[in-house]
UniProtKB/TrEMBL annotation:
The keyword Transmembrane applies. One of its GO terms (molecular function) is penicillin binding. PANTHER family: PEPTIDOGLYCAN D,D-TRANSPEPTIDASE, PEPTIDOGLYCAN D,D-TRANSPEPTIDASE FTSI. One of its GO terms (cellular component) is plasma membrane. Belongs to the transpeptidase family. It is found in: Membrane. Keywords: Membrane, Transmembrane, Transmembrane helix. Residues 593-652 form the PASTA domain. It comes from the Bacteria. This is Stage V sporulation protein D (Sporulation-specific penicillin-binding protein). The chain crosses the membrane at residues 12-33.
């Protein structure tokens, strides 16, 4: 019996050992499978269960005006997220959060019940609202809700320079304007950071922001002057009320450097709430609006004819009130006949028939050649997105009637920026400059990475022709169609324009709809600013001299005061029309208060000559560069304290 029991025990032990070996073998096989066959997948699964990640985006660089005033800044703000699996009562949570988030309760509930472990409820919430939500979460003991800090773009001046600045989308992507054009420069770096989660899979997001943030974007300084920009926009708002145009544009530029000092459009928008506006309101008409310039283009036609010797300022013409070209009758804008007139009167009164004659003298090839020389038919290359090229004929395709209409600013399409750039060339001794709006880009340590430079494109006309044409355009402001831009004590040159508006499909003109404009520069003795005013489809009066010129005059007056350019206090009776010197108008005597001196004009002088002139005037010189004086820090004829230092910039010629 004992032996039998011993055998049974041995068998049971053997069975147990065999079973144990089998189990160990199965376990070893499973471990081997997990380790060598399915190891990568399981490792990733475990990692996903205990880790999460968030992309950290550093704040965008700041955009400043030329004097360091903030135009666009980034601030840290909070975004609300939820873990739907932790939400116990989505109806209650939605009813409490929806009013604060300004969202429909149904939309909030839909996100709270979306499933998964993480979902955004609303991003970039204002600080006051964030505080209210935090109180609600605490008081109602709402689980599964939390905040993450994100960088939000703010525009402290609201709509000021909106079309230049553009705006930024929710994911920190520049969507228009400089924000879009310089997105890679302004936008900082992003960094994906992995964090542990708790046993329930809830990410510990707050720990993310205890780490060093990624590198911030570079700061950008624009050529804009915030004060001039404000002056322009204030006048534009008044014009929108008074003249009720469909749209409007004003550009102010330094004709000696190509720097854009102001650029404004109407309609406009607030980039802080860009999503509330339409694409039409986002459009930067200054660079993306093609229109027929009308009589403002006659300054280019006159420049071409003077340069080519096809026109002499003393020349007289006979105007019969109309001219026929290829069976097409072209009349004067006033429907009047001026008879025997000098060219001074022709440009003063913007007589269409005579400009047709001048254009026919030039011919298609020369007309197009000079239009291209002044930059028409090609984008200027300014650092703004969406720039149009305008429209020019091919000279070989032009009929005589096309030459005639182009001579009076029709059959050509330009952008506002092209036109002011071209007229600035007249103010700049005939040198066409590339317009620019970036002054400099700075690294976070303040060092300059990139600097905007004055770039000459070409010599469009000679300095002598430019000077002669300036004198003629000054007469337009003194006695011609631009009289309403005249400012007592200042000398400005300009040209008005009134053009029929093209239909949207380009098939013809819209009856009773016009584009009124004025373009000019000054002070004539040393132009500091050029200005263009364009009113698209104004209501009531539509002549450029009647509605655009006074806007330009108002803006220029305020700019002169801002730049400390004082009026010349003297007898300003203009010279006789018949005896005027077309290359310039004699400077009136300036009355100087005791203890003050007048800054002389040293343009074109050598360093020695400029130094002697300033010393005689009781001033000091700070020379910059070598060669011939091209500009000075305080413009000529400005009244200043004796002993003031004047920086004079010299360049090789």
């Amino acid at each position: 019996m004992i032996e039998k029991n011993a055998v049974i025990l041995q068998r049971r032990i053997a069975s147990f050992l065999i079973l144990l070996v089998i189990m160990i073998f199965i376990l070893a096989m499973r471990i081997g499978w997990l380790q060598f066959i399915d190891g990568d997948r399981m490792t990733a699964k475990v990692a996903n269960q205990v880790k999460d990640s968030q992309t950290l985006q550093s704040p965008r660089g700041t955009i400043y005006d030329r004097d360091g005033r903030e135009l666009a800044v980034s601030r840290l703000t909070k975004s609300l997220y939820a873990d739907p699996s932790e939400i116990k009562d989505p109806d209650l949570a939605a009813s409490l959060l929806a009013p604060l988030l300004e969202m429909p309760p149904g939309d909030v509930k839909e996100r709270l019940t979306a499933g998964g472990r993480f979902i955004w409820i609303k991003r970039m919430i204002e600080p006051m609202v964030t505080k209210q939500i935090e109180n609600v979460i605490k008081e109602s003991n709402l689980r599964g809700l939390g905040f993450l800090e994100e960088s939000k773009r703010y525009y402290p001046n609201d709509s000021l320079a909106a079309h230049v600045l553009g705006f930024v989308g929710t994911d920190d992507v520049g969507l228009d304007g400089m924000e879009m054009a310089l997105d890679k420069v302004i936008k900082g770096t992003s960094m994906e950071h992995f964090v542990d989660t708790d046993s329930r899979g809830i990410p510990i997001f707050k720990s993310i922001f205890t780490f060093a943030p990624p590198k911030q974007g570079k700061n950008v300084y624009l050529t804009l002057d915030s004060t001039i920009q404000f002056i322009v926009e204030q006048s534009l708002d008044k014009a929108m009320t008074t003249n009720r145009p469909q749209g409007a544009t004003v550009i102010v530029m330094n004709p000696h450097t190509g720097e854009i000092l102001a650029m404004a459009n109407r309609p406009t928008y607030n980039p802080n709430q860009f999503y509330k506006y339409s694409i039409k309101e986002w459009k930067n008409r200054a660079v993306a609006y093609n229109y027929e310039p009308g009589s403002t283009f006659k300054s280019v036609v006159a420049a071409a004819a003077l340069q080519e010797g096809q026109l002499y300022p003393e020349e007289r013409f006979i105007d019969n009130g109309y001219v026929e070209v290829s069976g097409r009758r072209i009349r004067n804008w006033s429907d009047e006949s001026y008879g025997n007139v000098s060219f001074v009167q022709v440009i003063e009164q913007s007589i269409n028939t005579i400009f047709v004659q001048i254009g026919m003298r030039l011919g298609a090839y020369k007309l197009i050649e000079y239009a291209k020389a002044f930059g028409f038919g090609k984008a200027t290359g300014v650092e703004l997105p969406g720039e149009e090229e305008g429209l020019l004929f091919r000279p070989e395709d032009m009929r005589d009637s096309d030459v005639a209409t182009m001579s009076i600013g029709q059959s050509i399409a330009v952008t506002p920026l092209q036109l002011i750039t071209a007229v600035s060339a007249i103010a700049n001794d005939g040198v066409l400059l590339k317009p620019h709006i970036i002054k400099e880009v700075r690294n976070m340590d303040g060092s300059i990475e990139r600097e905007g430079m004055t770039q000459a494109v070409r010599q469009a006309i000679s300095p002598e022709t430019a000077n002669r044409l300036t004198g003629l355009m000054e007469k337009v402001v003194l006695e011609g169609g631009g009289k309403k831009a005249y400012l007592k004590g200042y000398r400005f040159a300009g040209k008005t324009g009134t053009a029929e508006k093209l239909q949207d499909d380009g098939s013809g003109y819209s009856a009773g709809r016009y584009v009124a404009s004025f373009v000019g520069f000054g002070p004539v003795e040393d132009p500091q600013v050029a200005i263009l005013v364009v009113l698209d489809d104004p209501q009531g009066s539509y002549y450029g001299g009647e509605i655009a010129a006074p806007i330009a005059g108002e803006i220029l007056g305020k700019i002169m005061r801002h730049l400390n350019i004082y009026p010349q206090m003297a007898n300003e009776l203009p010279a006789s029309k018949e005896n005027i010197q077309t290359n310039s108008i004699p400077m009136p005597t300036i009355q100087v208060p005791p203890g003050k001196v007048v800054v002389p004009n040293v343009a074109g002088k050598s360093i020695r000559e400029a130094g002697e002139a300033l010393t005689r005037a009781g001033l000091s010189i700070v020379p910059v560069g070598t060669g011939i004086a091209v500009r000075q820090s305080i413009m000529a004829n400005t009244i200043v304290e004796a002993g003031v230092e004047i920086s004079v910039y010299f360049e090789a010629r």
